[in-house]
Design brief:
Thiol Ester Dehydrase, Chain A, 5 helices, globular, 10 strands, alpha+beta
C-alpha cells in the first residue's frame, strides 16, 4: 500500500481563507481533487486516458473531519491513497499534515467510474486497477456513514446556476453544492461555530440555468450543532444531501 501514496505540498493563500484566516472547506476540497487528479496523471490514467476511453471518475461521497483548520500562510502536505475498488466504485482517503507532522484534516471519499457517453456506471477497467496497484486484489468497499434525511426545513435560500459554477464536464462543480449549503445557514451560526465534519452525498447532476434551492434543518446534539442540508433543483429533485457538524468557538 505504501507505494500507492501520493503527496503534494501547498501554502494556504489568503484568498482561499475566510473567518479567522482559516482555509475554506470548498478550497480544501479543491486541493483534494487536484491531488487525486495529479496522482492519476502520474500513473498515466488521467485526463488523456479519460478522453481516449470515454470515461471519468465522478464524486459520490465525502466524509471530511477537520481536526485543526489550516490557516493563511501555513505550509501543509496533502497525502492521498486509493484504498480499494469494488465494481464501478473507487475509494480514496486523504490527510492534511502540518510541517511538524500533526494531522490537521482526514477524509474519506467514494467515486463512481462512469462512461461519459452513456452517463452510466462502468466496471473499473483492469488497466485502471493496475495503475493503482489493485490488479488481482480482492474487491472491497470503504464503509462510509450515510446522511440523514431532512425532516423539517428551517432555513432556505435559492440560487441560479451560473456559468462560473460549471466545470470542464459542463456540470456544476461539486464544491458549489457546499457553498450553496453553507450560504443557507444563519450568519450567527457561522460566526459562533467552527466546522468539525462534513458528509456529502452527490445524487444528481445540475447544469447551467437551473434554479437551485438550499434547505437546512438545525439541531443540537450535546455540545455540537448539526445541520442537515438538502439541495433540490427546479423540479424538486434532491441533487445533493449534506450533514455538517459544528463546534462552538
Amino acid at each position: 500500500m505504501g507505494n500507492n501514496f501520493f503527496e503534494k505540498n501547498y501554502t494556504v493563500h489568503y484568498y482561499e481563507t475566510g473567518k479567522g484566516q482559516q482555509l475554506r472547506i470548498s478550497n480544501l476540497m479543491n486541493y483534494f481533487e487536484e491531488v487525486a487528479l495529479m496522482q492519476s496523471e502520474e500513473r498515466k490514467v488521467g485526463l488523456d486516458y479519460y478522453r481516449e476511453h470515454g470515461v471519468i471518475w465522478m464524486l459520490y461521497k465525502w466524509d471530511i473531519t477537520i481536526h485543526k483548520p489550516p490557516v493563511f500562510g501555513q505550509r501543509i502536505r496533502i497525502r492521498t491513497l486509493p484504498v480499494s475498488i469494488a465494481g464501478f466504485m473507487g475509494f480514496r482517503q486523504f490527510w492534511v499534515y502540518a510541517e511538524n507532522g500533526e494531522i490537521l484534516v482526514s477524509a474519506q471519499s467514494a467515486w463512481i467510474f462512469v462512461n461519459t457517453q452513456s452517463k452510466r456506471p462502468l466496471r473499473v477497467t483492469e488497466d485502471m486497477k493496475r495503475a493503482y496497484g489493485h490488479s488481482g486484489q480482492p474487491e472491497s468497499k470503504l464503509e462510509m456513514a450515510e446522511v440523514p434525511a431532512l425532516q423539517k426545513v428551517e432555513f432556505t435560500k435559492e440560487f441560479n446556476v451560473r456559468q462560473a459554477d460549471i466545470d470542464i464536464n459542463e456540470h456544476v462543480n461539486n464544491v458549489r453544492y457546499v457553498d450553496w449549503a453553507l450560504e443557507a445557514l444563519p450568519p450567527g451560526l457561522l460566526r459562533k461555530h467552527q466546522l468539525e465534519n462534513i458528509k456529502i452525498v452527490f445524487k444528481k447532476e445540475t447544469t447551467y440555468g437551473q434554479r437551485i434551492s438550499s434547505q437546512v434543518e438545525v439541531f443540537q446534539q450535546e455540545e455540537k450543532t448539526k445541520c442537515v442540508h438538502r439541495i433540490v433543483d427546479d423540479q424538486q429533485r434532491e441533487v445533493c444531501a449534506l450533514l455538517t457538524t459544528w463546534l462552538p468557538v
